[in-house]
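Question thread 4412

I'm putting together a teaching handout and wanted feedback from people who do this every day. The idea is simple: show students a protein as raw sequence, then show them the structure tokens that encode its fold, then repeat with a second protein so they can compare. Below is the first pair exactly as I plan to print it.
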Amino acid sequence: DVEGTSGKGMVTARTNDGWGMYGMAGEDNREGVKIMALKGGSNNNLAQQDIIDAINYARNNGADILKMSFGSPTNSSPAELSAIRAAYNAGIVLIAGSGSSGSQGVWYPAALKEVIAVGATTHVEQRLSTSDYSAFLLALSAPGQGILSTVPGDAYTNSGGTSMATPMVSGTAALMQCVNPCLSPLQFNDIFRESIDRVGGYNYGKVNSLILPPYDDVSEELGHGRLDAEK
């Protein structure tokens, strides 16, 4: 699975080993974060029961962060929603791509309140054309254009989209958890929204929303802004 392998490399590829590329949480050529690779289908076809089983398996086997690079424009089924909420209530940080249709609105499960929705930016700090967007639902964005990462066959290639932006946020979450393992999913969400860079030249302003606090400044294109891992 090319996309799955690229996502894992973005999080865990070792840094400073003179080989390939750096992962967000690669730990300076030492053992970094541990990955639990769970398959939600076969041959690039998602199966809902497989997704539910994977989420439940992660919850039951000690996962701290769940990166979900899949989505649908229609709401999650009751069974999938139940699995996601059980993971959230167990303290798992849930992160998902906003979608890759380039349209207004965020796909599920990223659109769920329990999930941190991630969009993608270009090399010039603007919204990637294929990245779905929403001032109300998009938490933040991260680089998603021409990202070098691992692929099957002991190789590397450039990939793009929210499926590249999402592991950047997930890897940063892993680093945050190393610093403070007591953070709750809600605290992760708040920290990400407050420690961003408002790039792209977009209008970041307050919106009338029952979802966002009144002090939040957001843009339609990138949400609260672009990930800043150091912040």
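The second pair follows. I'd like the answer to focus on this one:
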Amino acid sequence: IIVVLTQSSREILQQVYPFAVGKVYVIPHGIHPTAFSSTELAKKKLKLENATILSTFGLLSRGKGIEYVIQTLPEVIKKYPSVLYLIIGETHPVVRRKEGEHYRIELSKLITKLGLKKHVKFYDHYVNLEHLIEFLKATDIYISSSINPNQAVSGTLSYALGTGRAVITTEFAQAKEIITPSIGRLVPIKDSPAMTAALLDLLRDKNKLKEMHRLAYEVTRPMLWSNV
């Protein structure tokens, strides 16, 4: 028996190894049990009241494609000046050994160049699970901006959806399988204009965004670790 996390992974294995047909099973990436809530309470706990929160979390590396998210913000902020983008997590230890904090420094320079210091905040340290869930609960739109089209699955995307948050994500395998217009938007990799359009689309209607939160929570219940 072979276990994979996405249907596309099963299809690849069965194409490359025909004898695997009937032996490959899909078990999705797990998510943590947490009660559904609106963003307001978590924003108050984190002292983020009155902000529209976008977030990305995980070990920082160039593969995250965060510069493409930052490039969307000037146009978005023109219309929604309360937007605050949180980049949560320390630099990946392997990346830090190889190049130090060069990528984070490059992102900081881009933020300064675009005049976004009031609209982007780094939490550049390890965040434990309890604190991470609070950040996700405070999030209005989670952004998964991976630049690797061959990435099979994303734990960060799974956790964000499992907390009941709308997402904008680049088109990698898991995202293409689970993201529907009712819970998020798919955008091409390295395409800042497409991401800008998706952000403006989701921010346009607060009630619709709240409904997307509820639906994201509901459709991910089979992914609970207890079920997985």
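Top answer:
Good format. For the second protein you could add a caption like this: The two ends are 16 Å apart (CA to CA). The longest helix spans residues 206-219.
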